[in-house]
Design goal:
It comes from Desulfuromonas acetoxidans (strain DSM 684 / 11070). Belongs to the LysR transcriptional regulatory family. By secondary structure, the protein is of the alpha/beta class. It has eleven helices and eleven strands. Helix 1 packs across helix 4 and helix 2 packs across helix 3.
């Protein structure tokens, strides 16, 4: 079995396109098609359905994909282990992160990590918490940093960093000069929310529920997919929001946003390093894990 063919096959599945897989693998599209055809002949099964411009794995293709990922991972780990034995750890490592740790915590960690391991190419994939966990379960990522404790027996979560969610308003908002607001008052104002599945949304919903406030009862004027979009919405006076203190720190310092305490409500949150349970980390992932532990 040619591992290169399995790598090309996985790229077709991951990217959903022969054209994009060819670009990513630095091959011509006919070469990609030939790799897939050879695999299909080997297994005497159709592995990829070609649906217009989309390419999707068949049931047999989904089975092969899971094993192909494991084979490729073992091959990469073997390469890394030999290089580590030779005192020259190098290679590529993809790390996932939800938006807050991806934007405000990991960049400095990656920079300091690369100063110690200059031969390692580290790629940061920022997405929602749910998407990060899905990539961990699929095996496309070994490590991810997320903003909520994920309850799934298939993954392990380890607390790494801390943060706090804060009510955020624009400077001339009626609440801006108040010492605090009552939880029930949140239902009276136009509110900007993160999208369902984001760590911020999950932690906010749980924190406010303890105070008797249900997020579905908010006057929602916008629901967006990034903290930057929420901050911009608050600065533009579209509404108020509950955001990570890390994400609004610069705005608060400049005076473009104001945080207001909620009476009797505290919403501390932690960021968790997530990995697949019972899966041994590669030498590269182990080195990055140890680096995070040293600096958290």
């Amino acid at each position: 079995m040619d591992i290169r063919r399995l790598e090309v096959f996985c790229k077709v599945v991951d990217l959903g396109s022969f054209t994009r897989a060819a670009e990513a693998a630095l091959l011509s599209q006919p070469s990609v098609s030939e790799h897939i055809r050879t695999l299909e002949e080997h297994y005497n099964e159709k592995l990829i359905d070609r649906l217009g411009r989309r390419a999707q794995p068949t049931h047999a293709g989904k089975i092969l994909y899971q094993y192909a990922r494991r084979i490729i991972q073992l091959k990469d780990e073997a390469d890394q282990a030999i290089k580590q034995f030779q005192g020259n750890l190098s290679g590529k490592l993809a790390v996932g992160a939800s938006t807050i740790p991806g934007a405000y915590l990991l960049p400095t960690m990656i920079d300091s990590f690369k100063s110690s391991y200059s031969s390692i190419e580290l790629m940061l994939k920022i997405s929602g918490t749910t998407a990060v966990v899905e990539d961990i379960l699929k095996g496309t990522l070994e490590l991810g940093l997320i903003g909520t404790l994920w309850k799934d027996q298939r993954v392990e979560c380890e607390e790494m960093f801390s943060d706090e969610l804060v009510l955020t308003v624009y400077p001339d908002h009626p609440w801006a000069k108040k010492s605090s607001v009552y939880p029930g008052e949140l239902l009276e104002m136009p509110f900007i929310l993160r999208e369902p599945g984001s760590g911020t949304r999950i932690e906010m919903t749980q924190g406010l529920k303890k105070a008797g406030v249900e997020v579905p009862h908010f006057q929602v004027v916008a629901e967006v997919g990034s903290n930057e979009a929420v901050r911009q919405g608050v600065r533009s006076r579209i509404g108020v929001a509950i955001l990570s203190s890390l994400s609004v720190a610069e705005d608060v310092e400049r005076g473009s946003l104001v945080t207001v305490p909620i009476e009797g409500v505290s919403m501390p949150r932690s960021f968790y390093l997530v990995q697949r349970r019972n899966r041994q980390l590669s030498p590269l992932a182990t080195a990055f894990y140890n680096h995070l532990k040293e600096h958290c």
